Every structure is written in structure tokens, then in C-alpha cells.
Here is the input.
Amino acid sequence: MAQKNIGIIGVGAYLPEKVVTNFDFEKIIDTSDEWIRTRTGIEERRFATENQATSDLGAEAAKKALENAGISADEIDMIILATATPDYLVQNTACIIQELIGAKNAGAIDVNAACSGFVYGLALAKGMVASGINKKVLVIGAEVFSRIVDMEDRNTCVLFGDGAAAAIVTEVECGTGIISEFLGAEADKTGSLRTIAGGSKVPLTREALDKKENFIQMKGQDVFKFAVKALPKATLEALDKASMKASDIDMVIPHQANVRIIEAASKRLEIPIERFYLNLNKYGNTSSASIGIALFEAWEKGLIKKGDVIALTGFGAGLTYASVIIKWSY
Ligand code: COA
Here is the structure.
């Protein structure tokens, strides 16, 4: 059987309107714009309104991706939603998005690979299309992290933002599409990035709430050390599978967590920082949405052309790390 070429035919993104600047945080916690900018590169981020859940953000991004792909929602036969902040713990959020966008012919599943989720989603979608199970898969990364960060914890609250992105994965022109993928994981045994309560291990009791265990907890330096290794490793593993070198990449779209992590990866990969697409200054870390939002922006600005080789690389809680190499199809 001839091998299928599978890639992206449309991308979209949605950012909530509410902008929260570093100066806004100066008013509520002991921090400064200078500290946040120099340690992370973040200047502002978006927060969802009280009425907006992850599904609402995801649905808006999905509609944009469908429009840009020029297809209708009922052509989608699978929705893969990457999120670590689902609407509910039980009842998957992909089903809610299916209803919101009217994708009545689609199966729907959530995947949680945290900030690597969008890349995991693309790889899974490729597999679904390659196997013949599905024809057109809608991959979404959507998060409302503002609901799970403690706005009094300066170690975490300044880092994250809300947003969503989407891509349509299907068969594409010969010689283009997703060339290779690497999906990595290792257990985070020390709880370097975790929300303790609300799952099966630690139920959401009053005591857990008093200890603020419903909020994300992070050991920043541990995550930093993991990230500076994981980003280059995942990219190089995917390049190796594609029989390509770092110098073959036209653009790296990394997870947008911290500009210092990306600069370190740029050095290790020997890919100039100018070839990394960065927008974390505007949106902060939007977890599984960040790579998709950056991809959409780069495409919308005309920075990605047909035939360009792009590496999408993520790392995050789990711990997970992942990369796909794509030859852009349109
Ligand atoms: N404003 C001011 N000071 C802050 C602060 C803030 N928002 N957050 C932390 N600090 C303080 C700390 O309390 C600490 O003070 P202390 O020395 O008195 O205890 C000091 O700054 C230095 O903290 P440290 O953790 O050493 O800073 P850092 O240079 O490692 O930067 C991070 C902290 C969080 C920016 C950095 O570790 C990081 O980016 N880690 C990765 C996080 C990440 O990307 N997570 C998501 C992955 S998907």
C-alpha cells in the first residue's frame, strides 16, 4: 500500500480579550515587571472571562482552523483535544467542543500531555489518518490555566496565560506533511510540576483546599533543568528519524514557557535564535495551546511558506517532551 502524506491543511487560534500585564501583577503580589521580563521574557498574558471555559476557547480556535482550511465541521471525523485544564474531570471536553462547533460526525477524545499536548495530538492524528481510522482530524490545544494557578503564588501566577489553537490534519500533497515525530516521557517523581488535589490520589477535600492543593505547584529550577535538555533532545530525535540535520530546519516553534529555556536550546541545537518563533512576551505560557498559537501567528504573518521545514517541540508536566518535523503543505 502506498504511504500516505499526512499534514496540516489549516490552522487557527483564539486568545481571550482580557490582557493582564506584569504591572497588573505588581499591584497584587510582591513582584516587578523587571523581574518577570528578565527571568522569563513575559510582558503580558491573556485571561479568560469568568464565563469562558476551555471548551469555549477551543471551539473558537477550531472554527478559525476550519475556515482557514476551507472545510465544514461535519467533514471532521475525529477531535483530539490536548488540555490539562478540562472543563470537567469527568465528561471529556472534546465532546463539548464537538457540540459547540457542530462536528456531528466526529469522535472526540481528550489527551493530557500538558505543554507537549499539541505535538502529541498532531502525532496521534497522523497515526489515525495513516491507519485509515479517520480522514480529517481536528487537533486542538486549549487551556484556562488562570483557573488552576494561585494568584497569591508569585512563583507560578505570573508565568501562565489562557488561549487555544487548532489544526486540521489530513492527507496532503505528495512530498509534504508531517515527516517524523518523537514522543518522550519520564515520570516526575518529585512533583516538580503538578496539581495535587482533585484526582484519584488526593480527593478535593476541605483540608486539601485549605492547603491550596487544588492549584498548580512547581519547582521552577527543576523544571528549568529538565526543559533545557528536553527541548533539544526531542528536536534532535525527531530530526534523526527524518534523516535530517538541525541546519535543515527553517523554523523552530518551541513551547513558549521561558525565553531563557529557548535561548539555551538554540545554543545546544546550534540553530540561531532568529529561527525560533517567539511570542511568549504577549501570551505567557499557555501550556498545550502555546505551540499551536505560535504556529498560527507565524503562518498568518506569512513567515511560513509551502515547502518550509518546521520543528514543533514541546516539554511539560508528566514529564513529557515531544517534537514533530513538518514540511509545510500550502
Ligand atoms: N517576582 C519576584 N520574585 C520572584 C518571583 C516573582 N514573580 N518568583 C519567584 N521569585 C523569587 C523567588 O522567591 C526567589 O527568591 P528567594 O531567593 O528569596 O527565595 C528568587 O526569585 C529566585 O528564584 P529562582 O527560582 O532561583 O528564580 P529562577 O531564576 O530559577 O527563575 C523561574 C524562576 C520560575 C522563572 C524559572 O525557574 C523557570 O522558568 N522555570 C521553568 C518554569 C516553567 O517553564 N514551567 C512550565 C514548564 S511547561
Residues 31, 35-36, 39-40, 115, 154-155, 158, 218, 220-221, 223-224, 227, 257-258, 285, 316 surround coenzyme A (CB under 6 Å). The chain has a mean pLDDT of 97.
